[in-house]
Specification:
Length: about 800
């Protein structure tokens, strides 16, 4: 990834914090530079508003001080202000590849305004006596053009509006023009009369301000800008411009610049708001599909246009408001005609929209309407979702015409088998809905079984006799149900459970619902918790069976949830697997393990630390390189880390797993087989793979004192491991009797509540030192070949 590609992924957050994109290869130097740019933009933003505040204070106290001193202070404040905002927009532009052109145009606009101010102040010792227009006045006009260019370039979406969208934009912009133009144009109408070209030139400024505001409003209505935060800042900044420019025009009656500090503060605040909007990210959080403007938004501008035509003044520039008002009314009329045509077409479509064309059953719209009606009436209600098994094979093999015949026949058979009071609808594809006024689980299951039986009757299609299997998910209305969408979701979950278990019909079970709202919310909270550092590690000690000294630790992840407290892995790891969060979670655990191990070694402790790695992460090609990099940066001996892998790593892709494990050993990191005995236990990988440790599953350890077979499996496994030169670990050691038996069998390492419970990282060092009998604090370790060293 090149530097430009990296910075293309950088976005400035709401408080100016840069958030890095998913660039796995980003070097720490680029991360450091991005963080520095973020801090710079944030600090400059604060400094800009401090300078504006200083200018305001100078304006308040300036009436009591010498005029020249106050004027000098204002000029210096203005110079500092322009330097700050130019540097801020330059830093933001340098860090954004996709928005760079628009931001540099804005930079040029700011530079032109600063140059115009410098020319104006340098043209005379008394700028307020300088005749208008001054030599640098064209710089101010060019600056406005630059702002317009920025507004056009800095949009995140293409313009794809249809005719009705353009009419809506004209209505809203025309109404805004009437509303904004009334106080602007009417107020200066008397001043402009008779003053010639200079004041007409000055009138361009408030007119350009209104045009720029209309540009932003039009972009919002046309959905080129889909969020309101940045447009609001832009419109507020341009409104301050308009007020300042209006005051400037009305003070030109003498034909000279009137030095007005208030106008300067308004211009400065306007620039600060525009630059603040430019430094906001373009990234949007889409909560829903953008909605079209409502009737009030269309009617409001039309009424404003009518009011302007009714009361507009006939002097000054008042007549110029006629054109936007008339255009607004024409666009509103055109939009009304389109709306009536759409309503007529909708009425005709509605008559055909309640029936499925193929089966002549009620369609999804009818089913949802029925469900909503029954929910509102608070009557017993049940919903079944039925999906035909293997229907895709029929379509792919015999063609869509044959598939349509199967769908029609399935609909006919269900309709004939069920009473008229039961609603049967086709939701789409090969999915049907059955709505019943019942909450009796037995009745519902019997009905589902009847449906499955009638569908199983042979069907002759294209000369081939077919039988149709189906899966049915059933849910019953609960007291909290108020919308059909929840019923559909629950029935869909139950239907997929029926399909997965091949059980025909299944009643919805909340405990088997991996897609509930709470679980979805938990997954999203976990997605934010990982980068925010809410994950913590607990470590469970491992002791040498012969010497009873600490020889290792197993890292176990926990989640310090802000509201729910400390959560065990069973509460959030399923959500992490389902939402694809295991890789970032594993990387976060890896970093914490390396940091803790580095700290302990700096304090004279040298434990061996084990961490779990699930098969998808082990085979991902991302986790292991990051682990190697972290070990190298921390300057840790690779042998101090043990990767625990499960036996299912070798089932899906055995050749690739073998290559990866050998790569791990090439980097001198140790490998342990976790939960040995519960998976596909094959002696071949113990023979062929560079494994250093076997961890006997706790289910065998817990049962060995009561189950002879478990005891024999444990003893034989330890003997085999000893013959192969492998270290053996017994996890789940809960009492002294079990520990004694394991030691007698020749186990190397003990782990379990009898030894110690998992403890926070901050408590590990104290616990280890309290058990260490050797003065130098060293621990029993194992060399690369797995053989024990003498204490």
């Amino acid at each position: 990834m090149t530097e430009l590609e990296v910075f293309e992924e950088i976005a400035i957050g709401r408080q100016g914090v840069y958030e890095l994109g998913s660039g796995g290869g980003m070097s720490r130097e680029l991360e450091r530079r991005a963080a520095l740019a973020a801090r710079t933009v944030r600090v400059l933003g604060i400094a800009v508003w401090i300078v504006i505040s200083v200018g305001f204070i100078l304006n308040v106290v300036g009436d009591n001080g010498p005029t020249n001193m106050v004027r000098t202070a204002h000029v210096l404040t203005l110079a500092v202000f322009f330097v700050l905002i130019l540097v801020r927009i330059a830093v933001a532009a340098a860090a954004r590849l996709r928005r760079r052109s628009g931001l540099w145009v804005l930079f040029a606009a700011l530079a032109l305004w600063a140059a115009g101010s410098a020319v104006l102040n340098a043209s005379s010792s008394e700028p307020d006596l300088t005749r208008f227009p001054a030599p640098g006045e064209w710089l101010f006009l060019a600056s406005y053009l630059g702002i317009a260019g920025y507004l056009i370039l800095d949009t995140g979406h293409r313009l794809t509006a249809a005719v009705d969208g353009w009419l809506e934009a004209i209505v809203v912009c025309g109404g805004t023009a009437c509303l904004a133009g009334s106080p602007l144009l009417v107020r200066v109408g008397g001043v402009v009369g008779g003053r010639g070209v200079p004041l007409l030139l000055a009138m361009l400024y408030p007119m350009i301000d209104v045009a720029l505001i209309l540009l932003v409003v039009g972009q919002v209505v046309l959905r080129v800008r889909r969020t309101l935060e940045k447009p609001a800042l832009l419109c507020l900044g341009l409104t301050l411009f308009a007020v300042a420019d209006l005051n400037f025009v009305t003070n030109l009656s003498g034909g000279t610049y009137g030095f007005n500090v208030v106008d300067g503060l308004l211009w400065a605040a306007g620039f600060a708001l525009i630059v603040e909007a430019a430094c906001r990210p373009r990234t949007e959080v889409h909560k829903a599909v953008p909605k079209r403007p409502g009737p009030l938004l269309m009617a409001g501008p039309a009424f404003i246009a009518i009011a302007v035509l009714a009361v507009r003044p006939h002097t000054g520039l008042g007549p110029y408001l006629t054109w936007p008002a008339v255009l607004t009314l024409l666009a509103a009329g055109g939009r009304l005609v389109l709306a009536l045509r759409e309503a007529k077409g909708a009425a005709e479509a509605f008559a055909l929209s309640r029936t499925d064309d193929l089966t002549l059953l009620p369609n999804r719209r009818s089913v949802i309407a029925k469900l909503d009606e029954e929910l509102a009436a608070d009557r017993p209600l049940a919903l079944m979702l039925l999906d035909l098994d293997g229907f895709k094979d029929v379509n792919d093999t015999l063609g869509h015409a044959a598939g349509d015949s199967v769908l029609q026949l399935a609909a006919h058979r269900m309709r004939q088998a069920l009473p008229p009071s039961v609603m049967i609808g086709r939701l789409g594809g090969d999915e049907y809905a059955i709505v019943m006024a019942s909450d009796d689980a037995l009745v519902l299951l019997e009905t589902a079984q009847l449906i499955l039986e009638v569908l199983l009757e042979p069907t002759l299609v294209e000369g081939i006799e077919l039988t149709t299997n189906a899966s049915i998910g059933i849910t019953v209305r609960s007291e909290t149900d108020s919308q059909s969408v929840e019923l559909l979701r629950r029935a869909d979950v139950a239907m997929y459970q029926a399909k997965a278990t091949r059980s025909g019909a299944v009643l919805y079970d909340v405990h088997s619902d991996d897609f509930s709202r709470k679980k979805l919310q938990l997954a999203e909270e976990l997605r934010k918790a990982i980068p925010e550092g809410q994950l913590v590690l607990h470590y469970q000690p491992q002791i040498d069976a012969a010497t009873q000294r600490v020889c290792g630790l197993e890292a176990l992840v926990r989640w310090q949830h802000p509201q729910r407290g400390l959560l065990n892995p069973i509460a959030f790891l399923p959500a992490a697997r389902r939402e694809g969060l295991m890789l970032p979670l594993s990387l976060a655990v890896c970093q914490m393990v390396v940091q803790d191990l580095r700290r302990w070694r700096n304090n004279g402790l040298q434990p061996r630390v084990s961490l779990n790695c699930a098969p998808p992460e082990l085979l991902s090609g991302v986790f292991l390189p990051r682990l190697y990099e972290a070990i190298a940066e921390a300057r840790l001996p690779a042998e101090s880390l043990v990767i625990e892998v499960t036996e299912d790593c070798f089932i899906a892709e055995p050749a690739r797993a073998r290559t990866i494990l050998r790569d791990i050993r090439a980097h001198r990191v140790q490998i342990a087989i976790d939960d040995y005995g519960t998976g596909f236990s094959s002696l071949s990988y113990l023979r062929d793979l560079p494994v250093q440790e076997l961890k006997m599953d706790r289910s065998f350890i817990a049962a060995m004192n009561t189950d002879t077979r478990s005891r024999m499996i444990v003893a034989s496994t330890f003997q085999m491991a000893q013959a192969l030169g492998l270290r053996t670990v017994a996890e789940g050691v809960e009492n002294a009797a079990t520990a004694a038996d394991l030691i007698a069998m020749g186990v190397d390492v003990l782990q379990g509540y009898h030894v110690a419970k998992p403890m926070p990282a901050d408590e590990v060092e104290f616990w280890i030192r309290s058990r260490t009998t050797v003065s130098d604090g060293r621990f029993d370790t194992l060399p690369v070949d797995g053989q024990r060293l003498d204490p």
